[in-house]
Design goal:
Immunoglobulin-like; 3 domains; elongated; 12 helices; seven-stranded parallel beta sheet; Alpha-Beta Plaits; about 25% strand; Rossmann fold; alpha/beta; disordered N terminus; five-stranded mixed beta sheet
């Protein structure tokens, strides 16, 4: 099953707990596993029970089911059963079975996370507020990019940066340093991109810092215990230097870089640059790349009252900048033609090793917002490889968080991008709630409520998606739970009697409701006290 396949991947943390005070047969040992920072035994919807040696499977099922532990399956050869408590305290039942000698030990079925949820990069938790705000931890459950490169038309990139060197695109059709144009694309020895400024050479090394910063946002090496996490883990970066050391560049150089990107395998082109002037040459290059199926993303512009070009071209997605509170950044261009917005204030990313140590820094600008969109597009395209650029753009705009007046507006376009929502919208999730009984007694009983979550094709959703539970009366423990093999559960009890309406929801994309009647306590009569 998927949960166990995930163990073969890099594990971020392990959550589990052991039944306190349980004695074990001599020679039976269970490794000590400490609870993680976010979850513990309370989050477990199933338990693991080790039955005594020689107990037949039929007998094990009978014993477990008789105590309110529904047997789900036996793990082969180690006599451990996966069980689900049905309205009972698993710890209490386990203690009783342990005392009777029916089992050797029991423990909550701890949750293992693959590193796709929260990477281990050094500055991820402390500096990258932007990554979590736009829902990337959930989006990474679905996709982490693919081998198709994202072109960064900018000041180049630091080709030796520890968080970028392994992510730089390699032209497999070119033989290094032989002085020949092996692939016939018009550029000699273009192994890692090209410098389109007056140098005109195959060495797009960043001498400004801007391009390195942008490249890190899109696709810094992620989960490598160093630096930052890029939006797209696996997408190579194609550095195309079209701007000088001072951050300026000509229309001709930028146009040629765009055409190079389209001709050499880039499916996404990020343009964190702009000016208030229209260029027919640059527009022709943009139209050429768009016609080749590329998605072009550009910064809206800073301190301007009208979109900069190339963001103003209709073939390009125009991106505004937002702050941690989801307000538009005060420098971000206002224009009714904006498509979306993304974080653009104090964005922490890579910086050239020759200019700063450690080689990371925070920067502001719509230049920083645009690569968030380019990275998200890479994630979506990897998940839907046959989609068109227009379909990817539509998914991003239609699932953006509408943070200003309803609909498209001049502050943030259709809203601030939401990576988690973009994937949930594409999988069309469905929730079905189930409970083993339709009524419980007030204060004295509880019932397990299970949400079965599938995608549009009926397959279980990835592990780790959060299902929220709400009820008009009573207590839900926990109030939210993560999916495991397409299931998420909570335990319902109530101090009041009446009809409980319990709802499970996956963001705003799927929900279901179940009703549980909470009956009053039983009344105890003593007829002999009152005579015949």
């Amino acid at each position: 099953m998927k949960r166990y396949v995930a163990l073969c991947l890099a594990i971020l943390w392990c959550v589990s707990g052991l039944l306190g005070g349980a004695s074990r047969a001599e020679g039976d040992t269970v490794p000590s596993i400490e609870a993680g920072p976010a979850e513990g035994a309370a989050a477990s919807t199933t338990w693991l029970v080790r039955v005594r040696e020689g107990m037949a499977p039929e007998r094990a099922r009978q014993v477990l089911a008789g105590e309110g532990l529904t047997p789900l399956r036996e793990i082969p050869r180690i006599h451990v059963w996966v069980v689900r408590p049905e309205g009972v305290s698993a710890q209490g039942v386990a203690a009783e079975l342990l005392e009777r000698g029916e089992i050797l030990w029991a423990e909550p079925n701890g949750i293992y996370r693959i590193a796709a949820v929260h990477p281990n990069d050094a500055y991820y938790w402390s500096n990258q507020w932007n990554v979590r705000l736009i829902g990337l931890p959930d989006a990474w459950l679905f996709s982490r990019g693919d081998s198709r490169p994202v072109a960064i038309v900018d000041t180049g990139a630091d080709l030796y940066h520890p968080d970028l060197a392994s992510k730089i695109w390699r032209n497999a059709d070119e033989i290094p340093a032989n002085g020949l144009d092996d692939d016939g694309n018009g550029y000699v020895d273009d192994i890692v991109g090209w410098d389109f400024t007056s140098f005109q050479d195959p060495y797009p090394q960043d001498d400004n810092g801007h391009g390195t910063h942008v490249a890190g946002i899109v696709g810094a090496a992620t989960d490598n215990a160093e630096g930052i996490a890029g939006v797209s883990w696996f997408s190579p970066i194609m550095p195309l230097k079209a701007l000088w050391y001072d951050g300026t560049g000509s229309w001709a150089d930028i146009a040629e870089a765009v055409i190079y990107a389209a001709d050499n395998g880039a499916h996404i082109i990020n343009l964190s640059l702009g000016a208030p002037y229209y260029s027919a040459t640059l527009h022709d290059a943009v139209q050429y790349a768009y016609g080749r199926g590329c998605l072009l993303v550009a910064a809206a512009g800073n301190y301007c009252t009208s979109l900069f070009y190339p963001a103003a071209y209709p073939e390009v997605m125009a991106v505004a900048a937002t702050m941690p509170n989801d307000e538009r950044a005060d420098f971000s261009c206002r224009d009714a033609r904006l498509d979306v917005a993304a974080p653009g204030v104090n964005i922490y990313s890579t910086y050239p090793t020759s200019m700063r140590y450690p080689p990371y820094t925070g920067m502001n600008g719509t230049s920083m917002a645009s690569p968030h969109v380019a990275g998200l597009a890479a994630l979506l395209w990897a998940y839907h490889p046959n989609a068109t650029a227009a379909q990817i753009a539509q998914t991003i705009t239609s699932t953006a968080k509408d943070i200003y007046p309803w609909g498209r507006d001049a502050n943030t376009g259709w809203g601030r991008i939401d990576a988690a929502a973009a994937f949930l919208a594409t999988i069309a999730p469905h929730i079905a709630l189930s409970a083993p009984q339709s009524s419980i007694r007030v204060q004295t009983e509880a019932v397990r409520i299970t949400a079965y979550v599938t995608d549009g094709s009926g397959q279980p959703v990835p592990d780790g998606l959060t299902v929220a539970f709400t009820s008009n009366i009573g207590t839900l423990d926990p109030p939210s739970a993560e999916t495991q093999d397409g299931e998420a559960s909570t335990l319902f009890s109530s101090e009041r009697f009446g009809e409980a309406v319990i709802t499970a929801s996956l963001s705003s994309y799927a929900s279901d409701t179940i009703r549980i009647y909470v009956k009053p306590k039983r009344k105890i009569f003593f007829p002999h006290l009152f005579g015949p």
